[in-house]
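I am still getting used to C-alpha cells and would like to learn alongside you. Would you supply a protein for us yourself, any chain you care to pick? Start from the sequence, derive the C-alpha cells from it, and show both lines together. Go ahead whenever you are ready, and we will take it from there.
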Amino acid sequence: MIELTTNFIDLNWLNVMYLFFVGLVGGLVSGFIGSGGAFVLTPGMMSIGVPGLVAVASNMCHKFPKALVGAIKRAKFGQVDVKLGLVMGASAEAGVLFGAHIQEYIKKTFGDAGSNLYVSVAFVIVLGIVGSYVLLDALKTKDDGQANKPEKITKIAKWIQSVNIPGTMVYFKSLNGKISFLFTIPLGFATGMLAATIAVGGFLGVPAMMYILGAPALMASATELVIAFVMGLVGSFKYAMGGFVDIRLAMIILAGSLFGVQLGAIGTTYVKDYMIKIVMSVIMLVVLVSRGLMIPVYLSQLGVISPLSEMTVKILKSSSFIIMVAALLTGALIICSALYKGLREERKLRRLVELPSSDTVK
C-alpha cells in the first residue's frame, strides 16, 4: 500500500506565465461554453508535472469564484436558469463527495502514477465520446442551413418533457415548461462525480441539458456555471481537508480566468449556437490527443507495460505539452475571432439603423 502523500511542484516564472495563460484560455472557454474550462485547466497543469489529484483539487478550488463571476455576467443577458442550476447542483453535491472518495482511494492505492493514469484515461474516453457527438451535431446543424433557426430538441428530450410524475413537476424557464426533477438527479450526480474525480463536469452537464432535457445551447452553457459554483465550493473544501489543494496554482489560474471568463461570456451574445458547439468539440478533441500520449508513460511507471526508454518518455511528454499549447491557442483564437466578427456585424447593423434617421434630419 502506497502512503498517501502530496508533492507540490516548484514554480518558476515560466511555469507561472504558462499557468496564467492556461487560466486565461480556461476562462474564455468557461464563459463561452459554460463548462468551467476544466478539460483545459486540469490537463494544462498536468502537462508541466502537477500530479493528477493536485491538479483536480486545485482546479476545483479556483472554479467556484470564477463560475460565480461568469454566472452573474451571463445572468445579465438573461441566459441563466438559476432554478435548474440549483436543482441539478443539489444532486451534483452527492456526486462530488462520491467522486472525491474514488480519486483519493486511487491515489492511496497506486500513487501519483495511478491517479494520473485514471485522470488521463477518463479524459480520453469522455472527451472522445462527447467531443465527437457535439462536433457532428454542430456540423449537421450548419450544413442543413439551420444555423439561424431555433434549435430542435431531441426525441428523448421530447419524451422527458411529456412525462408527468405527480408531485415532482417543476417549471424551468430554459425548457419553457415543466419536467420531473427526478430526471435531473442522475444527470447532476454524474456531473458532480466527474467534477470531483477528474475536475470536469461541464462537458457532461452542458450536453446533458441540451440533448436530454432540451435546453438551448446558450442557456445550458450559462446554467452550468451555477452548477460549477455549487460543486466547486463543496469539492474544494473536501480536497483542502485532505491537503491536496495547491493554493498557488489555484490563485494563478484564477487570475487569468477571471479576465477570460468575462470576454468569453460577452462573446456568446454575438455568435450562433452551432459555433459554441464547434468550439467545445474542437478543444475537447485536441486535448484528448495530448492526454492520450501520456497514457503509455503512466502504464510504464505502474509496471503494466515494459519500461519505456528515457528518450521515448521525453518525446511523449514534449509532444503532449506542445499539443496542449496548440489546444489552448486554438480555443483562444476561435473565441476571439467569433467575438471580433460579432462586434463588427453589430456595428454594421447600428450604422444601417442610424442612416435613415440621419437622412431625415438632412
